[in-house]
């Protein structure tokens, strides 16, 4: 078969996300710790608690859960004097538990008062999230914003100026709508709203700098709920400033809808090199784990090849050849096991987060996929011999049989991790 020059050049074209957008670097500090956002730092995954912050114990426990799941910064609501009063206690509890994660205070209507009245809260937080649209109107908004920036300057704290289409500055929006009506060809209302988000974010950032906040202490976000709007807004925002950008589809929704919508929006932007920190705003199912949003955020970055957090399991979807659910159960238990081990393995076995494991359900693609993985197992499909060959680094090393295939495969995975990645730790 002959290959055209076009097919060869297409096959050899670079694969992967575009170069990261160049930004300033912001540092979140607490005690002797520091986490960086933007610049040459990797894209950060963050999350937010849904506890009452006035309940310091419950909030500290949830922050710990989110941090152990992989959240690299956790935002907490600070909306009442009772909540602000407990922030230092939350920080202290986390420090006692050895949870090294920065806390971000989420402020709205009364943030200027709380930060001023509770300086211990202002100091315990590593960053403030400010929404200019929720700080009153006119002169009042300007004064409240200035007061929060003054507190940030005094305590040496960075801020995220987070503009949200549900609470956009109405004075700005009205003025831009009036200006739009004067155009020979007015823009659609949705386009004006998108432009207003960008203008609000950048103008407030520049005002913060004019008030004394360093330019490398500002992160921006422009949150909307529709995928195409979010992509358009962040493309525009990224082209007009060099502040680090926080990505997230606000009110993404519940379950598969929220996951799909967030993935669709963020993947496009991340592929274009846009975004320095992300949050997946999932609505938990009743009784569902808050940590799911952290897992989804990590998996978006890992499946795109931007970062590695935990070993990934490749598994076939199943078909008429796999009427047994055994391979599904094994794939799920292995993925759960690997994720649960990561808080321990992360320090003991450097590089293990990049490991690939294959759990396949029949002989059609099973052996081939297993050879491509670091370690893989090809389970018997319907009517196939009750044997399960295991492949390690592309070579068939053993064939498992009997009732203990799952347990024996876990043992093989454990031994592989210790042998391959434990050696890396010793060489360091």
UniProtKB/TrEMBL annotation:
Q: Which residues form the IspG C-terminal domain?
A: 313-414
Q: In which pathway does it act?
A: Isoprenoid biosynthesis; isopentenyl diphosphate biosynthesis via DXP pathway; isopentenyl diphosphate from 1-deoxy-D-xylulose 5-phosphate: step 5/6
Task: Drop me one GO molecular function for this one.
Answer: iron ion binding
The cross-references to SUPFAM superfamilies, in alphabetical order and at most eight, read:
Nitrite and sulphite reductase 4Fe-4S domain-like
- Could you tell me the EC number(s) of this protein? 1.17.7.3
Q: Name one Pfam family in it.
A: GcpE_C
For this UniProt record, the keywords arranged alphabetically read as follows: 4Fe-4S, Iron, Iron-sulfur, Isoprene biosynthesis, Metal-binding, Oxidoreductase
Q: Which cofactor does it need?
A: [4Fe-4S] cluster
What domain of life is recorded for the organism? Bacteria
Start and end of every IspG TIM-barrel domain? 34-297
Q: Does the keyword Signal apply?
A: no
Q: Name one GO biological process term.
A: terpenoid biosynthetic process
Residue numbers binding [4Fe-4S] cluster? 316, 319, 362, 369
How is the cofactor bound, in the record's words?
Binds 1 [4Fe-4S] cluster.
Q: Which reaction does it catalyse?
A: (2E)-4-hydroxy-3-methylbut-2-enyl diphosphate + oxidized [flavodoxin] + H2O + 2 H(+) = 2-C-methyl-D-erythritol 2,4-cyclic diphosphate + reduced [flavodoxin]
Record has Transmembrane helix as a keyword? no
* InterPro entries the UniProt entry points to: Dihydropteroate_synth-like_sf (IPR011005), IspG_bac (IPR016425), IspG_bac-typ (IPR004588), IspG_C (IPR058579), IspG_TIM (IPR058578), NO2/SO3_Rdtase_4Fe4S_sf (IPR045854)
Catalytic class of the enzyme: oxidoreductase
Family that this chain belongs to: Belongs to the IspG family.
Summary of the function given for this chain in its UniProt record:
Converts 2C-methyl-D-erythritol 2,4-cyclodiphosphate (ME-2,4cPP) into 1-hydroxy-2-methyl-2-(E)-butenyl 4-diphosphate.
What is this protein's record name? 4-hydroxy-3-methylbut-2-en-1-yl diphosphate synthase (flavodoxin)
Q: What is the gene name? A: ispG
């Amino acid at each position: 078969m002959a290959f055209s020059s076009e097919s060869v050049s297409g096959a050899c074209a670079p694969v992967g996300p575009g170069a990261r957008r160049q930004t300033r670097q912001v540092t979140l500090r607490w005690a002797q710790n520091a986490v960086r956002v933007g610049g040459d730092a990797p894209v950060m995954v963050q999350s937010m608690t849904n506890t009452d912050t006035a309940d310091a114990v419950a909030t500290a426990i949830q922050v710990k859960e989110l941090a152990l799941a992989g959240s690299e910064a956790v935002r907490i609501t600070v909306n009442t004097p009772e909540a602000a009063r407990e922030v230092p206690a939350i920080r202290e509890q986390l420090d006692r538990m050895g949870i090294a994660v920065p806390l971000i205070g989420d402020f709205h209507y009364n943030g200027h008062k709380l930060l001023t009245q509770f300086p211990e809260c202002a100091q315990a937080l590593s960053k403030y999230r400010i929404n200019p649209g929720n700080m009153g109107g006119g002169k009042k908004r300007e004064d409240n914003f200035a007061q929060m920036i003054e507190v940030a300057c005094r305590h040496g704290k960075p801020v995220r100026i987070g503009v949200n289409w549900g609470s956009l500055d109405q004075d700005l929006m009205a003025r831009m709508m009036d200006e739009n009506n004067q155009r020979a060809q007015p823009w659609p209302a949705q386009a004006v709203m998108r432009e207003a988000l960008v203008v609000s974010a950048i103008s407030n950032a520049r005002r913060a700098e004019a008030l004394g906040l360093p330019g490398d202490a500002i992160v921006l976000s422009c949150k909307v709920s529709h995928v195409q709007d979010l992509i358009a807004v962040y493309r525009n925002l990224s082209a007009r400033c060099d502040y680090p950008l926080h990505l997230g589809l606000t009110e993404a929704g519940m379950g598969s809808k929220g996951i799909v919508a967030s993935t669709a929006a963020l993947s496009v932007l991340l592929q274009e090199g846009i975004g320095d920190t992300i949050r997946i705003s999932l609505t938990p199912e009743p009784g569902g784990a808050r940590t799911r949003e952290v897992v989804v955020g990590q998996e978006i970055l890992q499946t795109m090849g931007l970062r590695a957090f935990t070993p990934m399991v490749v598994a076939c979807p199943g078909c008429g050849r796999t009427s047994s659910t055994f391979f599904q159960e094994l794939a799920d238990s292995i993925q759960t096991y690997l994720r649960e081990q990561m808080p321990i393995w992360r320090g003991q076995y450097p590089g293990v987060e990049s490991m690939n494991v294959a759990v396949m359900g029949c002989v059609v693609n099973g052996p081939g996929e297993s050879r491509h993985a670091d370690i893989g197992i090809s389970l018997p499909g319907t009517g196939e011999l009750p044997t399960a060959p295991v492949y390690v680094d592309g070579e068939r090393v053993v064939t498992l049989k009997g009732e203990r295939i799952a347990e024996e495969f876990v043992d093989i995975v454990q031994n592989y991790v210790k042998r391959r990645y434990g050696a890396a730790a010793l060489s360091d």
